[in-house]
Amino acid sequence: MLGDYRIQGRRASEIAADVEQAVAAGRLEPGQALPPLRELAEELAVNPNTVAAAYRLLRDRGVIETAGRKGSRIRPRPVTSYRDQVRLAVPPGVRNLAAGNPDPHLLPALGPALAVAGAAADREPLLYGHRAAEPELLALATAGFAADGVPTQALAVTNGALDAIDRTLAVRLRPGDQVGVEDPGWASLYDLLPAHGLRPVAVALDESGPRPESVAAACAAGVRALIVTSRAQNPTGAALTAERAAELRAVLARHPEVLLIEDDHGHGITRLPCHTLAGEDGPEHWVVIRSAAKAFGPDLRLAVLAGDRDTVDRLLGRQRLDTGWVSHLLQRTAAELWRTLGAAPAGVAEAYQQRRDALLGELARYGIQGRGRSGLNVWVPVPEETAAVVGLLQRGWAVTAGAVFRLQSPPGIRITVSRLEPEEAPRLAADLAAVLGAAGAAARQI
Q: Is 257 helix (H, G, I), strand (E, B) or coil?
């Protein structure tokens, strides 16, 4: 069952640690079945309850999954092997459209803003006991949220959007809870949930966001939280419309106990309006998150969130116990950028829209239906991901196989268009059409 590997340990924590270390070292591989409880207990000369407790620890840490009488096995993607770790090697001369990064040429120069932040720090060095958030940053965020109809009863600053989601899940949910997530969706989020011992429930979406009937089914199945991307959804580019937001608010109104986490990382890089699901008639507990990564640079690890007072107070209390606060150098830098440039440098949203539209238009000429209303990516359904990725790589294009973004949804590939010039779109579309035509011909011969 485990080959030559023998699990060691006398206590539940020791057994769990041994298995986790073996997974991290590659001695136990994804998909391998673990011994039945009584069999392992007998081999280790311990009580079966000890093994059961060890397996619960491993499940809560996202290392194994259990299926009743079918037993337990190493998860296909254990938390110790996150999805972003597996990256396509891009040979020299190949256009890298796989990374998901913004265009560096569209990012602002950080030097002037950092100089302002540094000068402020020189005048007033920040010591322990200082306030957690910069007043100017909170004021700018409050104005931005209010302009889009997002309530601003309580705000917090975190080290990016994923940190905000991580902290919100930690203070509101418990291991074993189910969480509704978009499918296709953010790969890092798929990895974060099992690290908390949470179980993802796939929610289908189209170009207008999560489908109401799928959200309703997830709520009926008992999800304790729903995570929604407002705009620039990764990987599909979906963006909530006013009509879809109203439909989803109606669904959530029937389930006020569901925690809403709304990720608006597309703030500033798309001109599509924000249609929030939060509000007076929204869920009791909620957060709306806006990060600086896409508009100002991924290394500016900062996000501001608005939320209900209880959730934000819990988050801030937990933050005080670990990191304490987000660097005020970062906060002041972000505030200076936000003050002088707005949500993003001028022309950024238009440039990304032009690049998306150019590729989508060229794909349509070949009858290929891509998706990408907003953001940095275009999602293209394909019959077989590996063939499409390898075929494009041979033609000089690196794209991402959709498997890392999917739970139950059909195959696809993600093409990051942030650095794809419009004049390159015709060749890419022609190459993808050739690849898909060859793949289809091969499939028909089998």
A: coil
Whether the bond into 298 is cis, omega within 30 of 0: no
The rounded distance, in Å, linking the Cα atoms of 112 and 358 is 34
Place of tokens 């109606």: 250
The residue type of 441 is A
- The region that residue 424 occupies, defined by phi over 0 for left and psi between -120 and 50 for alpha, beta otherwise, is alpha
| Strands 225-229 and 259-263, bridge-based pairing | parallel
Report how many helices (DSSP H) and strands (DSSP E) the chain contains, helices first: 15, 15
Instruction: Write out the H or E segment, with its range, that includes residue 56.
Output: helix 48-60
Q: Which residues, including other chains, have CB under 8 Å from residue 343's CB and lie 6 or more apart?
A: 144, 267, 268, 295
3-state secondary structure of 189: helix
What type of residue is 278? A
Which residues lie closer than 8 Å to 24 by C-beta, 6 or more apart?
80, 81
Q: Are 63 and 55 a contacting pair, CB within 8 Å? A: no
What is the C-alpha to C-alpha distance for residues 176 and 410, in angstroms, rounded to an integer? 27
At how many degrees (to 10) do helices 37-44 and 48-60 cross? 120
Find out whether 393 and 330 touch, Cβ atoms under 8 Å: no
Q: What type of residue sits at position 190?
A: Y
pLDDT tens track for 19-72: 888 887 788 888 888 989 899 999 999 999 999 998 888 887 778 887 666 788
Map tokens 């809560």 to a residue: 60
Tell whether pTM > 0.90.
no
Alpha-carbon distances, residue 47 vs 38, 42, 87, 113 (angstroms): 8, 8, 42, 61
**Contact of 186 with 100, CB cutoff 8 Å:** no
Written as six digits, the tokens of 412 are 């696809």
Chain center to CA of 161: 8
Specify whether the CB–CB gap between 270 and 233 falls below 8 A: no
Place of tokens 């969480």: 179
Is residue 232 within 8 Å of residue 376, measured between CB atoms? yes
Burial grade of 147 (CB within 10 A; 0-12, 13-18, 19 or more)? exposed
pLDDT digits (tens, 9 = 90+) for 363-420: 999 999 999 999 999 999 999 999 999 999 999 999 999 999 999 999 999 999 999 9
- Residues 200, 182: contact at Cβ < 8 Å? no
Angle between helix 328-341 and 135-147 (nearest 10): 50
